[in-house]
């Protein structure tokens, strides 16, 4: 069963494929850092109180806030 | 490489004896390493016109005939700007009016993270300007057991590609050779304009194409070693509990080191200025110019140069933390907390730097892309207790708290010192929390930040960074301190009417009067002259306003004079309390401790006055240099004036409260 979620709902250690980003400005920023639809994201760390989080794409590590992660649609692996 | 003929619209490209190199790249791609390795110390730090973004430029020799000037543009992920820094890069690259000498863009890419780094390269190619691609960090590629087909990438992009390891200077000679032999050919656009509708679409089209190129030219066997190592470090350093413990531990050690290591050089500087000042005072002919130079300019300069060891040390630690990749993790750890107060994880650097000096700290707030968060950071940074407050704190604490006094078996003096630092930090975040609701902003706040892999520090880069920071500090703060020192010197050397002359006459008479047995002390004359001067009048004038805080007119003068820099307080006190101490045996502390109010016969420095004054110095924006830098960074007078008024009011009412409680 395809498991479509928001990135913000994922847990530490989850792997997910990025499907899309709702906010346009945010998507430009993320795309430029290698966070492109189709890539696999790994949730590396979630800070206390759930914010911010660290994800990795390929071999780069990116930190972002929970509210940004809510804009990102992913498919859990 | 396929050499194509020049199109008619393009200018023929020919380097004669000069060339301009424009360095562009992602953050953390090794841009500074390459810049430093090309220029060495032959570099300058300035500002881009109209904005407060730092501009690094320099010169180097390409070969025996060709000289190059090089501009290091702020790091950017793409040509779609999102911060002031990135806007500068975008504007500079799109400006076609620089036609004085030929220009080559050198785009530096982290080869260990090829796909993302090539995105920027592909956008630069489409500007259709002469471009060279430098593939940096080839050592990491090797460590990760990957292989890159440089030829293949060169073919796919249609521009010269130079593999390198800028950290140790490998490949730099090859880059110079490539620059010298650069032949213009028509650059084939990577993505034609008609292929995409908007920026988003354009980026995706590029990615698809880059992905194919990378798949064809990168051989990879298994997992990345460096990413695995970074994960291992992060297991501890970004741990939800241990991460914070380690950060606090590092912070504690850092400040311990800064305060204990800087004592020696600070003593040397102090003594050096004393000796030089005396020598200059004796060598130059007596007169106004002599006084102005020695008592005004030199004293003011000495007052800021003495803080250079502390500032240099603090920035050394910050530079090491930044270069190893740790500081990005600190920002990650602190973002959750700072966000609640209207700040950003990136505010950590200015807030830390504020403990040395607010001037460079405020400048480092430039990396915060959200305007409101940056403004709030600038607004609250001066509340962090800086090193200029230390001499004031030390003197006053020693005055009102006996050294042997203990609290829960800890030295009470030390506890009060720590409490003042804590108070500054709490005031900073408290202020920010209130400001968060007052400053309106529609801009969305993000904290999207790359966490670079952990690497050993590059000592050469750190050395150059510190040198540049100290230079900027000296120049920015120095200009203002000299100007204010001169004004203050005039105010305290001249007085209204003939009051100053009267003081001199009075003592002249005493001296010449053989019946007078009293020996006249020069300090006594100075003190009375100061009382008769403009500064003295101002002090007396404001006395009613500061009386409720427990301050007399002498403290009033010190508050006014120390507006140039807080530590001037100590010097002014030294002059004011030199009265009647003929042998000059008592220290300032003893003199102040013995000071008695002539009207009431009570001691001036009671516990209440001491605490009140401490709080006043913790909160008041007693620093011209900070005001000046805020004017510059916020492009106007509105914020610095608000800041001055707010911190002044906070200081006044807190001191009032403290005095009323303890009195």
Query: What is the quaternary state of this protein?
Result: heterodimer
Shape of chain B: elongated
Q: How many distinct beta strands of chain B?
A: 12
Rg of Cα set of chain A = 11 Å
Number of domains of chain A: 1
In what order do the strands lie side by side in the largest sheet of chain B? 2-3-4-1-5-6-8
Q: Unreliable stretches of chain A, pLDDT < 50, 5 or more residues?
A: none
Number of domains of chain B: 3
The CATH class designation of the largest domain in chain B is Alpha Beta
By CATH, the topology of the largest domain in chain B is: Rossmann fold
The parts of chain B where pLDDT drops under 50 for at least 5 residues are 1-9, 579-585
Residues in β-strands, percent of chain B: 5-15%
* CATH homology superfamily of the largest domain in chain B: P-loop containing nucleotide triphosphate hydrolases
How far is the first residue's CA from the last residue's CA of chain B? Answer: 84 Å
Q: Mean pLDDT of chain B, nearest integer? A: 84
Structural class of chain A: alpha+beta
In CATH terms, the superfamily of chain A is: Ferrous iron transport protein A (FeoA)
The largest sheet of chain A is:
6 strands, antiparallel
Query: Which CATH class of chain A is shown?
Result: Mainly Beta
Question: What's the end-to-end separation of chain A, in Å?
Answer: 10 Å
């Amino acid at each position: 069963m395809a498991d479509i979620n928001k990135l913000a709902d994922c847990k530490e250690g989850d792997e997910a494929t990025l499907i899309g980003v709702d906010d346009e400005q945010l998507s430009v920023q993320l795309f430029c850092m290698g966070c492109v639809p189709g890539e696999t994201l790994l949730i590396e760390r979630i800070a206390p109180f759930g914010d911010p989080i660290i994800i990795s794409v390929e071999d780069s590590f990116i930190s972002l806030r929970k509210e940004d992660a809510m804009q990102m649609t992913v498919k859990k692996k | 490489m396929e050499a194509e003929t020049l199109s008619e619209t393009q200018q023929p490209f020919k380097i004669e004896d000069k060339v301009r190199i424009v360095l562009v790249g992602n953050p953390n791609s090794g841009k500074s390493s390459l810049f430093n390795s090309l220029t060495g110390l032959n570099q300058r730090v300035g500002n881009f016109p109209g904005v407060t973004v730092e501009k690094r430029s320099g010169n180097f020799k390409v070969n025996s005939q060709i000289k190059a000037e090089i501009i290091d543009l702020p790091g950017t992920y793409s040509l779609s700007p999102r911060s002031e820094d990135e806007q500068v890069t975008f504007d500079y690259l799109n400006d076609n009016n620089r036609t004085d000498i030929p220009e080559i863009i050198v785009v530096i890419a982290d080869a260990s993270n090829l796909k993302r780094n090539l995105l920027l390269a592909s956008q630069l190619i489409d500007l259709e300007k002469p471009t060279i691609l430098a593939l940096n960090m080839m050592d990491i590629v090797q460590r990760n057991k990957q292989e890159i087909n440089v030829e293949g990438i060169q073919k796919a992009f249609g521009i010269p590609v130079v593999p390198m390891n800028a950290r140790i200077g490998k490949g730099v000679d090859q880059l110079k050779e490539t620059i010298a032999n650069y032949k213009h050919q028509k650059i084939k656009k990577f993505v034609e304009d008609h292929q995409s509708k908007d920026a988003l679409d354009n980026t995706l089209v590029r990615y698809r194409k880059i992905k194919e190129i990378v798949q064809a030219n990168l051989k990879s066997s298994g997992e990345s070693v460096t990413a695995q190592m970074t994960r291992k470090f992060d297991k501890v350093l970004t741990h939800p509990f241990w991460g914070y413990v380690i950060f606090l531990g590092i912070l504690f050690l850092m400040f311990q080191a800064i305060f204990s290591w800087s004592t020696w050089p600070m003593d040397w500087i102090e003594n050096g200025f004393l000796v030089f000042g005396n020598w200059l005072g004796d060598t130059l002919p007596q007169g106004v110019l002599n006084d102005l130079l020695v008592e005004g300019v030199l004293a003011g300069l000495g007052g800021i140069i003495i803080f250079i060891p502390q500032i240099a040390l603090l920035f050394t630690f910050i530079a090491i933390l930044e270069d190893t990749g740790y500081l990005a993790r600190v920002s990650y750890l602190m973002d959750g907390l700072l966000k609640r107060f209207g700040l950003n994880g990136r505010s950590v650097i200015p807030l830390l730097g504020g403990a040395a000096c607010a001037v460079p700290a405020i400048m480092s707030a430039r990396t915060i892309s959200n305007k409101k968060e940056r403004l709030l950071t600038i607004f609250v940074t001066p509340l962090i207790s800086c090193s200029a407050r230390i001499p004031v704190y030390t003197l006053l604490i020693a005055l009102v708290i006996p050294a042997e006094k203990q609290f829960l078996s800890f030295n009470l003096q030390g506890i009060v010192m720590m409490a003042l630092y804590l108070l500054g930090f709490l005031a900073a975040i408290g202020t920010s929390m209130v400001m968060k609701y007052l400053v309106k902003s529609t801009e969305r706040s993000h904290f999207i930040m790359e966490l670079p892999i952990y690497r050993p520090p590059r000592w050469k880069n750190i050395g150059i960074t510190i040198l540049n920071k100290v230079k900027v500090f000296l120049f920015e703060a120095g200009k203002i301190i000299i100007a204010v020192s001169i004004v203050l010197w005039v105010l305290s050397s001249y007085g209204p009417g003939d009051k100053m002359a009267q003081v001199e006459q009075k003592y002249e008479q005493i001296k010449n009067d053989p019946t007078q047995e009293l020996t006249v002390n020069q300090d006594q004359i100075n003190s009375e002259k100061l009382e008769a001067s403009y500064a003295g009048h101002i002090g007396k004038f404001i006395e009613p306003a500061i009386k409720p805080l427990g301050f007399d007119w002498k403290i009033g003068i010190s508050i006014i004079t120390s507006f140039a820099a807080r530590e001037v307080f100590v010097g002014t006190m030294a002059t004011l309390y030199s009265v009647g101490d003929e042998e000059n045996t008592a220290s300032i502390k003893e003199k102040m401790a013995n000071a008695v109010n002539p009207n009431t016969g009570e001691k001036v420095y009671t516990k209440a006055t001491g605490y009140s004054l401490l709080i006043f110095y913790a909160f008041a924006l007693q620093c011209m240099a900070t005001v000046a830098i805020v004017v510059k960074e916020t492009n106007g007078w509105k914020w610095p004036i608000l800041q001055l008024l707010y911190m002044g009011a906070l200081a006044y009412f807190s001191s009032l409260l403290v005095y009323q409680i303890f009195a």
